[in-house]
Q: What sequence folds into this?
């Protein structure tokens, strides 16, 4: 019977430990990757301008750069602006100018995507106007090209230079559409099937999450009922909670430190390398707080289960016996037990049994020799 009881308690303890582990991971996901507010905040912290400059191809702008030879002025070869340098400057200025707009559109996509994944909307469709991109790119390109032209061109009449700059704007307008619609038509049926599975999985995720909240208290109650020892059950729960909290915190510490050391060795954009360690710290922050809280609770329970409480000391000191004083029957002077003669009058303090004559102690009620009643 004791073996079966111990086996059931061990099984409940293992289930509670695994439930804590699963609940901690789901708690982290619920408040980070599955939370659009968290994702939007990480997008705001990301240096989009630096990443865009590294990822966007300069050839896109070079294709839109005008042909300097179309100007009605012959320029020496060393005075012709280099398209590569012009494209770099135009790209840098445009991305820096549009960074707030890009983050705003990214957040719009994030919230729309999560509404679709969580089943709040039946379709995913976001219309983004690219007019700010066209205007900014055109203005920066015209300004950069104009600043790069040699002095010979600066003296040309406006009717000669304006068509040249208008051509720049026309080439940009042809290369960038007015709007961009982000919808299901951008990906194939395979991706759409994965998204549908993700929507169903999120529904199960919420169900399991709420079930764990009710399942763990039942496991704790089962440990108390089967053990029938309050202190022993508290001590067992303390060990489970403390073990999970410490192991989980150590695991988070190792993962974040490895990410810090390995991020610089992976070939990726500099902006991504700078952002990734902070992102991991923010990602694991809810789980880290949860593990610390569980460890503290476990430590308190373990102390409460080990230290005795509500019990009196087992050994109590006995009060020393106080000798009872009596008086001499002859003169009334005080005497102490064991005294055979009175110190005041010398009278004998020992008395004898009237039946057998045996000496009996003063104030004795029966003779210790024959049992005769004396009083």
A:
């Amino acid at each position: 019977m004791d073996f079966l009881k111990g086996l059931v308690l061990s099984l409940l303890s293992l289930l509670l430990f695994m439930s804590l582990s699963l609940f901690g991971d789901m708690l982290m996901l619920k408040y980070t990757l599955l939370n659009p507010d968290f994702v939007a905040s990480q997008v705001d912290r990301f240096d989009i301008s630096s990443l865009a400059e590294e990822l966007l191809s300069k050839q896109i702008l070079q294709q839109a750069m005008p042909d300097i030879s179309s100007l009605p002025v012959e320029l020496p070869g060393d005075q012709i602006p280099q398209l590569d340098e012009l494209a770099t400057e135009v790209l840098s200025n445009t991305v820096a100018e549009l960074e707030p707009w890009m983050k705003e559109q990214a957040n719009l996509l994030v919230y729309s995507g999560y509404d679709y994944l969580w089943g709040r909307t039946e379709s995913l469709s976001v219309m983004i106007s690219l007019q700010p991109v066209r205007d900014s790119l055109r203005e920066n390109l015209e300004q950069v090209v104009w600043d790069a032209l040699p002095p010979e061109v600066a003296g040309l009449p406006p009717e000669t230079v304006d068509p040249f700059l208008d051509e720049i704007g026309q080439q940009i307008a042809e290369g960038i559409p007015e709007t961009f619609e982000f919808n299901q038509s951008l990906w194939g049926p395979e991706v759409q099937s994965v998204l549908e599975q993700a929507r169903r999985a999120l529904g199960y995720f919420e169900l399991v999450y709420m079930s764990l909240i009710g399942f763990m208290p039942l496991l704790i109650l089962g440990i108390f009922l089967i053990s029938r020892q309050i202190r022993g059950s508290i001590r067992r729960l303390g060990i489970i909670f403390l073990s999970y909290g410490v192991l989980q915190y150590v695991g988070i510490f190792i993962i974040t430190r490895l990410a810090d050391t390995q991020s610089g060795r992976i070939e990726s954009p500099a902006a991504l390398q700078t952002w990734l360690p902070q992102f991991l710290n923010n990602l694991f922050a809810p789980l880290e707080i949860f593990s610390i809280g569980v460890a503290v609770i476990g430590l308190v329970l373990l102390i409460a289960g080990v230290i005795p409480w509500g019990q009196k000391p087992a050994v109590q000191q006995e009060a020393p016996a106080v000798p009872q004083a009596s008086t001499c029957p002859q003169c009334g002077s005080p005497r102490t037990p064991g005294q055979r003669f009175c110190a005041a009058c010398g009278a004998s303090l020992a008395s004898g049994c009237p039946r057998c004559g045996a000496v009996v102690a003063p104030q004795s009620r029966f003779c210790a020799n024959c049992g005769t009643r004396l009083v």
Remarks:
- Residues 35-186 form one domain.
- The beta strands are 125-129, 179-183, 326-327, 334-335, 351-352, 359-360.
- The chain is about 65% helix and 5% strand.
- Confidence is low (pLDDT under 50) at residues 73-80, 321-325.
